[in-house]
Write a structure and sequence with these properties.
The protein contains 19 helices and 14 strands. By secondary structure, the chain is α/β, with parallel strands linked by helices. An eight-stranded mixed beta sheet has the order 7-6-8-4-9-12-5-13, sandwiched between helices. It has a two-stranded parallel ribbon with strand order 1-2. A two-stranded antiparallel ribbon has the order 3-14.
Length: about 525
């Protein structure tokens, strides 16, 4: 009998009104429980007021999803039903990530999605995710696609959708008193509401990309003012948070080598964003701006500096230089090199510097050493000092200690990479040399049930924006400004102006207030 009922469910035609009601209720129950959990847990209303608010939001959501479903199927027919199938699958994936990683689907999240390579995205794929997408996404989506539906007349469509719109307006007017609360929590509410969160924020990202300049804004011409042989190596870290660096007071020995390094300067710093594209842009640009100004490597290259960019990461603004190499390209250029880990970025680095025909060399190493969700894949097993480890963030949710162990091992490996780099530069006595390490953003490791990064800055926990900023100089190269000449906490834009100083580039765009060094005498 049950089988016959299931067959009837798929074979017997249903009116578009009833079909839209079923889809609307299903979307509410399957994909929006996190939304209502947030509402219930973040209002100061009395029990009666809370019930009224949640009831009103349920009514609005049901009416809105009903109207969307009705219009999609009525106007687009089969295409509309394919669209509902796609939305069901994406809804399921969104709910999985919200529940598993504590994320919200904001504009930042969608920009991260569009800028993530498969090699990193594959780390999120798991049996649990596929099962969630199958049960909550594919099966409901197939119902949307295959259930026979009687479309009905244009008049009935007008009545049904008009009534839904009227219900939405009435429910909204009844909750005018909650406008201020909704405005205060609009980012969180919008980030948890499916499918509107990723639809609206996808259009927001597309609009933002469309508005960006196709060509970067050129800076004023600069000039190199001396011929002293100088090399600056800028290391852009990935997801390295200050809280887990021994150099910043962390109780574990995650920096056993750097903590013994003479002359290492440690700065308190914050990032300008919590995701790679914006954080990396801030490191390389002269000032905080929504515009795309000529970034540091491009400007230095145009001024006459020999610039090389080596990367195992992505998400930087367009780089216009002659020597841009990804980790696979480095492995191809230097046969026998292994590009499994970020030490590939140091391969033949001394030879690269010594072979330069310029007296001014800038090397940018864009690492991915602490990027999740699989921290344990980011370092050689020789660096698995803190054990046991979680193989992924999803596994680490069940045991945060294992997750922290894996993450701390990435910092331990970073310590080794930076120390190796400094040892290479120190041995090059004919060059003035500098090593600067700064992270694009921090990382959450389960605090307040939040994982990884990408939370909007106005909501982000400090572990996502408090970052390490480390500097080493060869003897006699430059003098640091005194601590009282700088803010207590500096930010990423100090990199641009400080590197111009190190490379002896005189420029109208140089700002001494954003330079950690004194001017050369």
């Amino acid at each position: 009998m049950i089988i016959n009922k299931i067959k009837d469910l798929w074979r017997n035609p249903v009116s578009l009104f009833k079909f839209s009601c079923i889809i609307s209720i299903g979307a509410l129950l399957l994909y929006n429980i996190p939304f209502f959990n947030y509402v219930a847990g973040n209002t100061d209303e009395s029990l009666g007021g809370k019930i009224l608010l949640i009831t009103s939001l349920v009514v609005i959501m049901l009416a809105l999803n009903f109207m969307m479903t009705y219009l999609s199927v009525f106007l687009l027919r089969k295409v509309g039903r394919v669209l509902l199938l796609i939305l069901s699958i994406i809804n399921a994936a969104a709910v999985y990530f919200i529940i598993t990683y504590g994320v919200m689907i904001t504009g930042t999240t969608m920009e991260n999605v569009f800028n993530t390579r498969y090699s990193e995205a594959s780390g999120f794929l798991s049996c649990t995710m596929w099962l969630t997408v199958f049960v909550l996404g594919l099966l409901p989506g197939l119902y949307c696609l295959l259930r026979p539906v009687v479309i009905g007349t244009l008049k009935k469509m007008g009545i049904c959708c008009g009534s839904a719109l009227a219900i939405i307006l009435v429910a909204a007017l009844m909750n005018v008193s909650h406008t201020l609360w909704i405005g205060q929590h609009d980012t969180e509410l919008g980030g948890l509401l499916q499918p509107w969160s990723y639809i609206a924020n996808t259009f927001r990202v597309i609009s933002s990309k469309h508005d960006e300049q196709a060509v970067e804004i050129k800076l004023s011409d600069g000039e190199i003012t001396d011929s002293t042989k100088t090399v600056v190596v800028l290391v852009i870290g990935e997801s390295a948070r200050k809280a887990n660096f021994q150099l910043y007071g962390y109780q574990r020995e995650t920096n056993p080598l750097l903590s013994k390094l003479e002359g290492l300067k440690v700065y308190q710093a914050t990032s300008c964003a919590t995701y790679t594209t914006a954080g990396t842009k801030a490191i390389l640009e002269p000032k905080n701006s929504g515009d795309l100004y000529e970034i540091l490597p491009n400007y230095a290259f145009r001024t006459g500096v020999d610039v090389s960019w080596r990367t195992s990461n992505w998400g930087e603004p367009p780089v216009h230089i002659n020597d841009y190499l990804t980790d696979p390209q480095l492995a191809e250029r230097y046969p026998g090199s292994d590009n499994t880990y970020d030490d590939i970025l140091l391969t033949h680095l001394r030879e690269r510097i010594d072979s330069s025909s310029s007296n001014k060399v800038l090397i940018v190493l864009h690492t991915s050493t602490s990027h999740g969700p699989k921290y344990a894949d980011k370092y050689p097993k020789d660096f698995e000092f803190f054990t046991p480890v979680a193989n992924s963030v999803e596994e680490g949710e069940k045991n945060l200690d294992k997750l922290v162990n894996a993450y701390d091992n990435t910092i331990l490996f970073t310590d080794f990479l930076l120390d190796s780099l400094v040892n290479t530069l120190r041995s090059m006595t004919e060059w003035n040399s500098a090593m600067i390490f700064i992270s694009d953003h921090g990382e959450s490791l389960g605090e307040n049930n939040i994982f990884m990064h990408g939370v909007p800055m106005q909501l982000a926990p400090k572990v996502q924006y408090e970052i390490p900023f480390l500097v080493w100089l060869s003897d006699g190269f430059r003098d640091y400004k005194a601590d009282d000449e700088l803010p207590e906490v500096i930010e990423q834009h100090y990199i641009f102006h400080s590197v111009l100083n190190l490379l002896s580039i005189k420029s109208p765009d140089y700002n001494p207030d954003f330079d950690i060094f004194k001017q050369a005498q």
